[in-house]
Every structure is written in C-alpha cells, then in structure tokens.
Design goal:
By secondary structure, this protein is α+β, with helices and mostly antiparallel strands. About 30% of the residues lie in helices and about 40% in strands. The strands form 2 sheets. It has a 5-stranded mixed beta barrel with strand order 1-3-2-4-5. Strands 6-7 form a two-stranded antiparallel ribbon. A hairpin with a 3-residue loop joins strand 4 and strand 5. The structure holds succinic acid.
C-alpha cells in the first residue's frame, strides 16, 4: 500500500496496540456494536476450550467507540502482516467508515478486524452471566481470558465509552473471581 491508513481497534487493539503507529485518536463506527461472541483458541483459550473475545456485530442506530491508529504508508505492509498473524483466529480485515474525534469530528475510511459468523471460532450470542463463566474458566497462550475483559473495560472507561455489554460481563467476572 502506498498511503497512510487508519485502523480501528475495539478489543485488544484498544489496550494493547503492539505495533508502530504515527498517531492515535478516539473514534467511533456507526451501525455496529461490540460483542463477546468470538471464540479464542489461540490467545485466550485453547482448541476444545475456547475463551471469548470481542467482535463487531451490525446493529441499526448503534455506535461503537474505540481507538483508531494511523499507520504511515511505509509501515503499512509489515504492520498489517504482523496484525494478520495476531488476529488469525477467525478475524478478517474489512474496510469501514470511521469518525475520528479530533478537535472536530473527521470522517475517514479505515480498516478493522471483524470475526464474522462464518469463521470457525465464532460462538455467537449467550447471556452475560454464561459469557462471564466461560471467561473465568478460560486461559490461553496470551494469558487468562478475564485479563482481556478487565483490561478492555478499563480502557473503555478511560475512553469515556458507554458499553453496557462489556461492563455487565466485567461485573459478573469480578463477582465470580471473588468467590473462587
Ligand atoms: C480489535 O481489537 O480491534 C480486534 C479484536 C481483538 O483483537 O480483540
């Protein structure tokens, strides 16, 4: 690629962007919600005992807040190569319209990793309590699944994002961990 790109992070990319970026900016996408409906067998779970991580689902009228990162043209190919490896557990790169919340909102075309229902690790909807129970029992090569949820919830609060789905799962997890 020979131009700079913006990548939208809404999950681990919000709190662990381990790639080179030129700029970062809080951002939103319209018509999408964050959901713990993607299974993880390579980071926060293992094959046969998947953890749960987030994906984006279409929802009319919704807005999802995350963090966008600008990658300079010269860094795009190696960065996307490394991210394709990191996100290989079912996520696909899609183009998306983003609003960057700079001093004034700016609309740009960006990219995002989404775990679509047709990918083999997709788990789909479940109650928040059951999702929390699965998270508490899951661990993978990147660490315990609960760490992913708690770090994400903390990062979203720092961003001023209102996400009842994430925050409800977070409180069930804290309750369950305290009883362990
Ligand atoms: C993202 O953070 O944007 C993708 C999903 C994840 O890696 O958690």
């Amino acid at each position: 690629m020979n131009e700079d790109i913006w990548i939208f992070g809404y999950g681990s990319l919000v709190w662990r962007p381990d790639f080179k970026f030129a700029e970062k900016c809080p951002a939103t996408v319209n018509g999408m919600v964050r959901r713990f409906w993607q299974g993880s067998t390579d980071h926060r779970g293992i094959p046969g005992k998947p953890g749960r991580v987030v994906t984006l689902e279409t929802k009319v009228g919704a807005t999802c807040r995350g963090m966008a990162y600008k990658i300079n043209a010269a860094d795009v190919n190696p960065t996307i190569g490394a991210l394709n490896f990191r996100e290989k557990g079912g996520y696909r790169l899609e183009t998306i319209k983003l609003t960057l919340h700079m001093s004034e909102p700016v609309s740009v075309k960006g990219i995002v990793y989404i775990g679509k229902p047709e990918n083999p690790n997709y788990l789909g909807p479940e109650t928040s309590k059951r999702i929390a129970a699965q998270v508490v029992e899951s661990i993978g090569p990147s660490g315990p699944n609960y760490e992913y949820v708690l770090r994400l919830a903390e990062a979203l609060r720092d961003l001023g994002a209102h996400d009842p789905h994430v925050f409800e799962i977070e409180s069930f997890i804290i309750e369950m961990l305290c009883k362990k």
